[in-house]
Amino acid sequence: MTLFRHPEDRIPVLLFACVFALDVTVFLTATSWWFPVLWFGLGIIPKGWICSWNHHHQHLTMFRHAIPNRLLEIIFAFQTGVTSQAWFLHHVVGHHRNYLDQTKDESRWKRDDGTTMGELEYSLKTMLTAYPRSFQVGRKHHPKALRLFVAMAALQVVLLAGLFWVNPYNALFVFLLPMAASLFVTVWATFFHHVDLNTSVHAEASYNILHRGYNLMTGNLGYHTAHHSRHGLHWSKLPELHAQLARDIPAHLYRQPGIPFVWLGSEAKLVLSEHEVEALAASNAKAKAPASAPASGEELAA
């Protein structure tokens, strides 16, 4: 019986496990005050990328069985600050259902008066409300996911408390602060996905990033219109779906990636030429349509 749902997930999961093994090694062996601090700084950007893969996993779980999925989610939580089912409740069930309505969106970029938040305001507010909003979505719509969310969050707290009991200084810089920083970086990055796009049309509601390095590190998260079009589709199939949608996506709904891919003009808006749009559409003209995506709650049992 195959362990993974999709073979493309094997190498990413191996890399996540290796990063976690390095974290544990630093936690257990670092004796100088500066090395855990250095490790924390070096890990901010890579763990920010891992947040994208945690996001993909909670849209479509990487393993076929519950136990390896829960173990992977413990690793993800230590790396990203997002615990098991938190993305599912806040993002999959919440944001994806409500992102066209800024009065309901769990990641809303509008204030109550209808004006647009600034980057820092959005990031702090969304970060601080992430877990309460996840709980609210679960209580209203998904009690099964809520029970798992609460149980796994409690387990995560117990594990983190155990790490602090063993070595509080290393636990702070190797685990707790990276969890908080990764959650903030993740939320900050999502500001640029939909900000100022007032529309009821899905093809016009997301910005896209075509940068090859960015999509390699984030599992094709740059194909954001495609992701919102079929959010249960595996990350490896998003470029193909984007090609099918290319002519429907307005040419101005593209951006540069952020740091470290672009240092000057990070997140700047781009406008594709008609030739570039046609090249995107033609790049997959002969490919078959992607397999059907599962419903938003279909993978919950695993």
Automatic annotation (TrEMBL):
This is Fatty acid desaturase. Keywords: Membrane, Transmembrane, Transmembrane helix. Pfam families: FA_desaturase (PF00487). It comes from Corallococcus terminator. Signal peptide: none annotated. Residues 32-253 form the Fatty acid desaturase domain. GO terms for biological process: lipid metabolic process. The chain crosses the membrane at residues 12-31, 145-166, 172-192.
